[in-house]
Structures are given as C-alpha cells and as structure tokens.
Amino acid sequence: MHRGFRWSTVFLLAGLVYPAAVWSQGNAPKIIRGTPKAPALSAPASAPRTVPGSAAKPPGEAAAAAASLQQGLKYLDAGDYDRAAKALQQALAADPHSVEANYYLGVAWAAQGDQDRAIDRLNAALRLNPDFRQAQVALGGIYNQQGLTLLRQGKPDQAARLLREAVAHDPQNDQACNNLGVALGQQGKYTESLAALERAVTLNPNNDAAQFNLGVLHYSLGDKNATVQQYAILTLRNPAAADELFRIIQGTSEVATPFRF
C-alpha cells in the first residue's frame, strides 16, 4: 500500500453525485460515489403464504381484516402513507398473524421515514414467513439507507455494522455491497473491502461507483495491473470517473500524501 495513503479521502474526490437508493433517500453523500436508484417497496408478486398453525378467524373478523388491508393497499398505491398506516394498523389489530398486514405496514412507515417502526413490522412479517423475499429486500434497503447516513456523518465503523445487515438481508444488493466496501476501506480493512467491492461489480457491472472505488482500492494496495483494468473499464463506461482515477494516480506519483480531509 502506498505510504501515507488516506483511504477515507478518496471518496471525497468524485465530483459527480449520482441518485441514491431506497425510498426518500435523496442524493448520495459525496463521501460515496452514488449508485443507481433502486425500486421502491412494492406489492409482492404473489401473496405471502399462510402461517402454519394460525387459527382461522370468524367470518366477521376475517372480513374486517381483509377490508382494512385492501383499504390500506389503496392508500399505499395513492401515496397517502398516513392513511395507509392507519388502515393497515386496523387490519393488523383484526389479524395479528397477517404477513401481508405486517409487511405493508412496514412499507407505509418506511415511506414516511419511520425506519424503526418499519424494521419492527418487517421483522414481524419475517417471523411469520421467513421465506418472504420482499420483506428481506425491504429490510436490506432500510439498513443500506441508515448506513449511508452514518457514512455521511463520518462514522464508517457504525455504518459498516448496518451495511453488513443490509447485505445479510439482501445479498443481491450491489449498492449495499459498494457502500460496505467504502465503510470497510475507510477503516483500513482492505481485504474485506476488496471482497465487498468485487461482489458489487459482479452483481452489477454497471455500478460505476463500485467500479471507481475498486480502482482506487487496487491502486492503494499497489496493484497496478488491476488499477489499469479498472481505468479501462471506466474509460468505456464513465470517462469523467476514469479521468478522476487517472488524476489520483498522477497526483500520488508526485506527492506522498495528496489526500486530506
């Protein structure tokens, strides 16, 4: 590794800021080259399975729960998250074992920015149905968002803990892998950082942020061949990012410690 290299400064160099992932996250912080926008939480392709052993509801209660659930879904579709949450709470009160009511209530609260309550309901849905993929993805998205916030605040150690949760819940989330790679790199955990960034570009070769960060990491580790390979990839995909990587290489060849906060 180059002497005196400041990993955490590297991620401040990128002049381009890309849209970030997950609901109302907004623009990615400049500490990370942002990643493409991910789909918002949505209805599952198929209804969650029935919970084994759950008692059948009397017809009246079942009808009330179903009506409240459908009303909540209509409000969700309309973007009226406050009313959606109220209707879904009624559905959940009528049927606490409803995977759908728990999941969609988590969606409604997440859309309002109430991440703690969203996590609680999504975990409840997963306890009822551990195979419910949409809930896993939703939790991964929330943890990724929280990790980004901590990176923005300059807390990579805390960010890494949440980003590990994000990747554990949604291993296919290339954005979370990229962000985890940044958090680990900022702590000097280069082997783990390399693994996370390589997974990010394997999952999504079009993730320019991860491609750039991987090039920076290879350079910081003194792997010239891998750095040149990343430069070539970025030249074809994102010339501005390639130019930035080239400037990093040029700068560090002349000055021992070019990057500072």
From TrEMBL:
Keywords: TPR repeat
PANTHER family: PROTEIN O-MANNOSYL-TRANSFERASE TMTC3, PTHR44395
Keyword DNA damage appears in the UniProt entry: no
TPR repeat spans: 65-98, 99-132, 140-173, 174-207
SMART domains with a match to the protein in the record: TPR
InterPro entries (alphabetical): TPR-like_helical_dom_sf, TPR_rpt
Full protein name: Tetratricopeptide repeat protein
Chain residue ranges for the region called Disordered: 38-59
